[in-house]
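Case study 2.
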Amino acid sequence: MRHVVVISTGGTIASRWQGDGYAAEAAGQEVLAAGAVPECVDVTVVDLFTVNSSRLTTDHQLRLLHAVHEALADPSVDGVVITHGTDTLEESAFFLDLFHADRRPVVLTGAQKPLDAEDGDAAGNLYDALLTAATGRDIGVVIVFAGQVFAARGTVKKHTVDARAFGDPDGLPLGRVEFGRVTWGRRRPRAEALPLPAPGVAPPRVDIVMHHSDGDTVLLDASLAAGAQGVVVVGTGAGNANPQVAARVAAATRDGVLVTVSTRVAAGAVAPLYTGGGAVDLVAAGALLAGTLRPGQARIAILAALLAGRSAENADGPDAAGGGQAGVRQDAERRRAAGATLRRILDSTPQALPASELYLVDRVGK
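Prediction:
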């Protein structure tokens, strides 16, 4: 027998009709009882919280992170399954993966149809997730949905309501679950895990700002004024904005704010191809390119970099370490360390070809 801990957090997989819409309400044991459990698996259920995942906060994700590590502290546990709402599942999965060093797998799954739907997908997805958690090794944190196993990094929700909800726009599944077994197609190298933030740490504000026609710095200014320590600029095309945005990014990075550039395009990496406020200028302004990470996971990369290694003594915020010059120096050092951590995270993410090689590819193609 394999021992798997199921951590229940809500979502559609735990939702029932409320008279005017669906909402998460079912406990983990009810979700588990809705389908079959693989014969080789013994399950322990942990009810962590029950929310629609659009309501998720960093505090929820930190609680989930520590619950996973507590479960894996038991050597009799062979793997962890997390039932999660699909709206922000890709964010929680990547967050957990950045801090995961254990050989035992952590598997996230959910459903596109509510728990009591006659043609629902909850039971099948949970069965596949349990099987993956019981048999997988050295796969990190993965997403199991509709018979496919995806690495957390790079996987996004690609359809609002279709049963095949998840995919990696720039990659392939790690494996498939068919006929009661998991078939692995490839292995993805695992990056070094970040140090675990201590319980009680105060989560920093990290925002996402999208560029568009007529885009200006109003929303970016508002984010920075609200105290954001990190911002994802969602560019057009290969990661482009305009000169006003680039100038504001330069001012923000001088102040120690971490800025990454992602894209609103569904697939492909951001690339330093254009000036005039494009990615070339954003990089010169101090922003880091997010490679193939879509905006939600680019934000998680900044969040994790800021949280890594933070201790409970700083739980009251950035000024808790002390005032005066000592506090300023410590805050500056913490920001430099977070910037270096963010670079390591992004360096382990597939990046675009250099501009010269993209040009050559384009010319050869013609």
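The longest strand covers residues 41-51.
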